[in-house]
Design goal:
- The structure holds two protein chains of two kinds.
- By secondary structure, chain A is an all-alpha fold.
- Chain A has four helices and no strands.
- By secondary structure, chain B is α/β, with parallel strands linked by helices.
- Chain B has a single domain, classed as Rossmann fold (3-Layer(aba) Sandwich), CATH 3.40.50.
- The chains are: A mainly alpha, B alpha/beta.
- Chains A and B meet through α2, α3 and α4 of A and α4 and β6 of B.
């Protein structure tokens, strides 16, 4: 029961992340108010923090070492992708980030 | 519009030069009065836009701390071949670059004056969500986020603040926000500089405000405690914010810097020449 609850929380946070990152990329660059955008980006930062923490907690409870490793890699993906991301290829890395989060959602649903 | 400036005494060959480095997202404009003051007291003064600033403003997103370092090193090397005494001063990011130059050219720099040294971003103006900064810096969020330039704009004096606000809106004197990519590079530069602070042996005058809104006194204290200079002084201002060159105690700062430069340019000139 605990694992299912954790999986649901992870799924919801991932969904929020996908939605907020997409919203930032598609709509928010058109808004001139930088303070509002900054606060929105800070909210995405908060979601990433929760995403990583949640991935670690689920990895503790999930059976099988392979699943644990995959989940930890997915949880660390924002930092791994961030390490290699460049300003010139920001859109590409944003898509990779979104795909990795969606992959995490699929993984947590299936395993 | 270029805001770079060079003040050179044409009538006589000046022996002393001061290189000034401006702050992050700023421009040499913020150093102009300071530069004019030093020029009026007999020093040749050089201030140029750092890479990613000035007319090349779009480059701020792709500039690296290595670009800033290379610029600072090359400016120093250039002037050191022309002048007997070269001093380096800077504000905010410029102060960190002054430290970097003093680390690399420890025996050649005659003195440094870092103002509002920004080794850590821990001032009181930072937003409530600044604890998320490490996450933003390490992920793709660093390309999404611009920290908005906001009140008090680093200035305690309300009259001056109003003037600076208007100038910022026109966009001639600096940018209206700090791109996270630039903050990322500043913090990498800070890490690079902190590693070798003990290599600094030249006379050093640190000036920092107790109420600095962007970076606390911790930055100045770290520098003061780690450098190896025999002659070092840390002045803490009580009635200014980050932009110490424009705030309530600017005259005091100018006089202190002038006193420091005069003392050390004189000392260097009086040193016996060994053969």
């Amino acid at each position: 029961m605990l694992l299912i609850t954790l999986k649901i929380i992870f799924f919801v946070i991932s969904l929020w992340l996908v939605l907020t990152i997409s919203a930032k990329k598609i709509f928010l660059h058109k808004i001139a108010d930088n303070v509002q955008i900054s606060e929105f980006v800070a909210f995405i930062g908060l979601l990433i923090m929760l995403y990583v923490i949640c991935a670690i907690i689920v990895a503790i409870f999930i059976p099988s070492y392979i699943n644990k490793i995959i989940l930890l890699l997915l949880g660390a993906s924002p930092f791994i992708i961030g390490k290699f991301a460049t300003f010139e290829k920001e859109n590409l890395f944003s898509i990779i980030q979104l795909l990795s989060i969606i992959l995490g959602m699929a993984f947590i649903t299936l395993c | 519009m270029s805001v770079d400036f060079i003040f050179i005494h044409e009538d006589c060959k000046a022996k002393n030069a001061v290189i000034l480095f401006h702050g992050m997202t700023g421009s040499p404009f913020e150093l102009k009065k300071y530069g004019q003051f030093l020029f009026s007291k007999g020093y040749d003064v050089y201030a140029e836009s750092l890479p990613g600033h000035g007319e090349r403003v779009s480059e701020i997103y792709t500039v690296t701390y290595q670009d800033w370092l290379n610029h600072a090193y090359s400016r120093f090397e250039d002037l050191n071949s022309k002048y007997e005494n070269v001093f380096v001063s800077g504000l905010c990011l410029g102060a960190v670059l002054a430290l970097a130059v003093a680390e690399k050219y420890s025996n050649e720099v005659k003195g440094i004056v870092p103002l509002s040294t920004t080794l850590f971003l821990d001032g009181w103006r930072l937003p409530w969500y600044s604890f998320l900064m490490p996450i933003a810096l390490s992920t793709i969020l660093r390309f999404y986020y611009n920290y908005p330039e906001c009140e008090p704009h680093g200035i305690k004096n309300e009259k001056v603040r109003g003037i600076v606000k208007k100038l910022l809106q026109k966009g001639d004197v600096g940018m209206n926000d700090f791109p996270m990519t630039a903050i990322y590079e500043l913090l990498k530069l800070s890490k690079f500089v902190r590693k070798s602070l003990n290599k600094i042996v030249c006379p050093t005058l640190l000036i920092h405000s107790k109420e600095d809104d962007l970076t606390s006194v911790k930055s100045a204290n770290v520098v003061y405690n780690k450098i190896s200079s025999d002659e070092r002084e840390l002045i803490i201002l009580n009635n200014s914010y980050h932009m110490v060159l424009y705030d309530n105690e600017k005259e005091f700062v100018y006089e202190k810097v002038l006193g420091f430069l005069n003392e050390h340019s004189k000392l260097v000139a009086e040193e016996p020449v060994c053969c």
